[in-house]
Design goal:
8 helices; about 60% helix; elongated; alpha+beta; 4 strands; four-stranded mixed β-sheet
């Protein structure tokens, strides 16, 4: 997801605040929750984008929705809302997580499979991908896409490892057509 310069700047400020207060990990967990809730709730995204709703009303709703978060997170969300940048909240959360992972040396990759992978299979994939990319600490996300038929796709930054059955079928089809 492309983030705006606004989101990048606000997330950097939040990282700085979290670092100085020693709450880097706690706020990362909060930002994961913020990101997940914003992704799930269309009503919340509509509220964040709505210019008619007053800031104090938005802050009241956001405080209820994110009541389980750290006070620093709640104050930051209120600050964003006061500055009329609440629509950037999902992007700020995403950028914060990305920057946190950079700071901690954690890489993130996506494994696309035709069916959900078991815990054991994810463990083996994590070992395989970390050795393949020469990265010690990696987080894997499993995305299910039945269209690949079988096998896996591994996406990391700008790299793609396609070991899917659908790719193999495309290759066989090309050979049959052109030979």
């Amino acid at each position: 997801m492309s983030t705006s310069r606004i989101a990048s700047r606000y997330s950097k400020s939040l990282i700085d605040m979290a670092t100085t207060s020693g709450k880097l990990d706690a706020i990362k967990e909060d930002m994961e929750m913020v990101s997940a809730i914003c992704a799930e709730s269309q009503d919340l995204r509509n509220l964040l984008k709505n210019p008619i709703v007053k800031s104090k009303d938005k802050i009241a709703v956001l405080n209820r929705v994110f009541s389980g978060t750290d006070t620093t997170t709640q104050e930051f969300i209120a600050y964003l809302t006061d500055k009329r940048r609440e629509n950037e909240l999902p992007n700020v959360a995403s950028q914060y997580i990305s920057t946190y992972n950079e700071i901690k040396g954690i890489a993130s990759a996506t494994v696309v499979s035709a069916t959900p992978l078991s815990e054991d299979a994810m463990g083996k994939m994590k070992t395989y991908v970390s050795s393949l990319l020469s990265i010690k600490d990696i987080e894997l996300n499993n995305v299910v896409d039945p269209s690949i038929i079988g096998g896996v796709l591994v996406k990391h930054e700008d790299r793609l490892l396609d070991k899917s059955v659908s790719k193999e079928l495309r290759e066989i089809r090309k050979q049959l057509i052109y030979n």
